[in-house]
Amino acid sequence: MSRPKIVVVGGGFAGVECLHRLERRLAPPEADLTLVTPTDYQLYLPLLPHVAAGVLTPQSVAVSLRRRLRRTRLLPGGAIGVDTRAKVCVVRKTTGEIVDVPYDHLVLTAGSTTRTFDIPGLTEHALGMKTLAQAAYLRDHVIAQLDLAAVTQDPAEREARLRFVVVGGGYAGTETAACLQRLTTAAAKRYPRLDPSLIEWHLIDVAPKLLPELGDKLGAKAMRMLRRRGVLFSLGTSVASVEPTKITLTDGRVLATHTLIWTAGVAASPLVHTLSTDTMRGRLVTTAELTVPGVDAVLAAGDAAAVPDLAKGGDAITPPTAQHAQRQGRVLADNVVARLHGTPLKPYHHRDLGLVVDLGGKDAVSKPLGVELSGIPAQVVARGYHVMALPTVTARTRVLVNWALNAAAGDDFVRTGFQAGRAARLQDFELTDAYMTADQVEERHHDEPKNELAEHKKHKEHREQKEQQDG
Ligand SMILES: Cc1cc2nc3c(=O)[nH]c(=O)nc-3n(C[C@H](O)[C@H](O)[C@H](O)COP(=O)(O)OP(=O)(O)OC[C@H]3O[C@@H](n4cnc5c(N)ncnc54)[C@H](O)[C@@H]3O)c2cc1C
């Protein structure tokens, strides 16, 4: 008898944690383990703003999968569709070749992409902060604006190049604005022709508060810290349209700028829409045991999945954080093993430990286990948390050494140029256009779509339309 094939899609927090545990819990003859992954590293996303700011090298937050996973087969590519009836995952390899990967158990942990809205010009001109390439691109772009502003004779162009706009007042947007603002402030000293007072950072959010995840007091503290550093806030406001050199806000103001950084939330990987199963707020609905109802042998977790939050109760789902994804990864593994061994599955239950927000230097706010901290104590907790959460000793050492180096020697403001000239739209980095439709997946393996499946699809489309109408 052949060994059961366990296929995991996505080598992020949930996927890697799941495989790491499966390697320990299953003897090699018990199952074949495969990871479908476009890269050979696990990205430690919470420190991505430090890469954009040049505080950390890209390698420090890219944890080698081959160091962490010893016997999992890494399939370089992205899943573009899942046929749950044929039990096949359709994968586009990095060479462009499309292959069918059969599975006995499928674990979907493909994470999320930048959430966008129907705002004219947004997807063409906004820059995102979800991948290593985006962080490196953003760094080069910001430094390039300083270089160009320093040589232009046109005051209007100089002003626009020195104005940077970040949309999204959650932790990703706030940390990105804070870290890059520090970069431009420090860099300005090396540009004798630039008046540093012309550098302007704007943080915009449609919500009335900054960092709502941390509560009113800490959100207000973070705002005060950033205001002291010159960051301008526009809360309760959004973007009406985006053009290459200006954005128009919903309150009618027009900001001349060459830089719009868009971090206004995440949307589940488009892969989830290739299955004909239910979604909630765009995420794949799962049970508390992380199984996907209505299909056989599929589990899901992390940002891609709507996992019931048993600690909160009601119809709450777990927020899209690394803290949850990593812990869900372990339950995924335990439940795949339970399925193989015919033992009961266990539900995912985790009480949120809080959040840390590193604003650079001595500025930070954090709320570990409900305790509100700001300034240096919050920064110690934030950095300590990240060091502990990094999955390998090598990664921890790299990050610590880089932080120390940066504190001692500062930054060199070097534009690497590796990505110069590349298409830089959100979909170019995040490959959101690469997926099959549910119908294409169906047609690939079946001549006749199953009647119940067609009915289910119709029902699902109707529900999704209603969800959209209800906002
Ligand atoms: C800037 C920033 C800061 C953050 N800070 C924090 C923080 O401080 N604390 C916190 O808890 N969370 C934080 N988060 C959120 C956290 O990073 C995510 O919630 C977490 O990464 C989700 O884990 P995941 O395993 O679901 O997805 P990911 O870790 O994103 O992994 C998904 C993986 O799937 C791969 N993939 C995508 N599509 C496919 C496909 N079709 N086929 C195969 N592979 C695919 C991706 O390349 C990726 O490797 C932050 C996020 C960002 C962007």
UniProtKB/TrEMBL annotation:
InterPro entries for this protein: FAD/NAD-bd_sf (IPR036188), FAD/NAD-binding_dom (IPR023753), NDH-2 (IPR045024)
Listed Basic and acidic residues bias regions: 441-455, 462-471
SUPFAM superfamilies membership: FAD/NAD(P)-binding domain
Domain FAD/NAD(P)-binding: 5-329
Coiled coil: none
Keywords: FAD, Flavoprotein, NAD, Oxidoreductase
Location of region: Disordered: 439-471
Statement: the UniProt record of this protein carries the keyword NAD: yes
Keyword 4Fe-4S: no
Domain of life of the organism encoding this protein: Bacteria
Family designation: Belongs to the NADH dehydrogenase family.
Protein name listed in UniProt: FAD-dependent oxidoreductase
